[in-house]
Amino acid sequence: MNFVHRALVTATTALVLIAAPAAVSAAPRQADRAGLQEQLDHVVATAAVGALAEVRDEHGVWRGTGGVAELDTTRPVPATGTFRAGSITKTFVATVVLQLVDEGRLGLDDPVERWLPGAVPDGHRITVRHLLNHTSGVYDYLNTLPMPPGQAFLANRWRTWTADELVRRAVAHPPSFDPPGSDYAYSNTGYLLLGRIIEEATGRPYGAEITARIIRPLGLTGTSLPGASVRIGGPHPHGYVPIEQADGVVRLVDYTEMNPSVMGAGGEIISTTGDLNRFTAALLGGRLLPRHLIDAMKTPGVEGGTYGLGLAWRDTSCGVRVYGNDGDALAYQAWTFATEDGRRRVTVALTPDFRGDPDDAVDALMDTAFCG
């Protein structure tokens, strides 16, 4: 769901600047290490109500927080709190798909039509690989839904959606490009289809497969797939979305509780910084997949791209390449990346206040962590 935040920043700035600067946490802090706390504070000052981060490397573990857990309070962000991790869900889904490939239960070049007959037009030309690396051209269903700051967005807050229902909304629109495989266009619809393919291949819900194959074996006790459950369990920061009020002013509305079925296999997961660091290290370290499939995950779908089979890469300012993913769940944003050997890992999560785009500030924090 990576594009959503940028669209919201543009839309809300055009209306009115949201006056909701975050207060500095009053909680005691872990001693700063190589400027990490300073960079996290900059993330908060740029675009967040609250933020939390965990860095793991050869020096040990550093955790930091900034801002507040809830507006109009001084309550600190819980350093090990849970949050909605958005599109990082896609890396979990992709890992299960590739495990099934390794087991011979499905193929990367299987057409969608084989598994989901009639689900998408020209499904015989769109493959599992195309869905994984966003080269399918299938229209993104999120573009069919109301988004903030309009009041219509809130009307769907508690609604339970099915993947098939959302896919039908998407395929009512022409593809983003044709033929499949010829270009890149980020599509959450593709991952809804992958969730359904997992279910057809295994006979079980995709969430049950992720839990059995990844969450339980790795001991990710703070990670869950909530389905249609609206709550976030355990200590957590509150998340907000900008909504235009009757007086025409855009204000932040608490959106911590919502029905995540609208994100489904593309973005429903709830996790912690520690769990995501553990997952990324296990994935890159070969605990979940054989090496040739990890290499396939790292291979971009188009020339010059940075997104492979559910896994992205970025180069830091010091030339260190790191792998992982980022996620946008409207009221929460998260990033989790690690070096190729998994020895250095960084996960950052924040609750945006939509005063600006946090990407540059998060990049600077990651550069400090990976290059320091």
Automatic annotation (TrEMBL):
Residues 1-26 form the signal peptide. Keywords: Signal. InterPro entries: AmpC-like, Beta-lactam-related, Beta-lactam/transpept-like. Residues 50-363 form the Beta-lactamase-related domain. The keyword Transmembrane helix does not apply. PANTHER family: D-ALANYL-D-ALANINE CARBOXYPEPTIDASE, D-ALANYL-D-ALANINE-CARBOXYPEPTIDASE/ENDOPEPTIDASE AMPH. This is Beta-lactamase family protein. It comes from Streptomyces pactum.
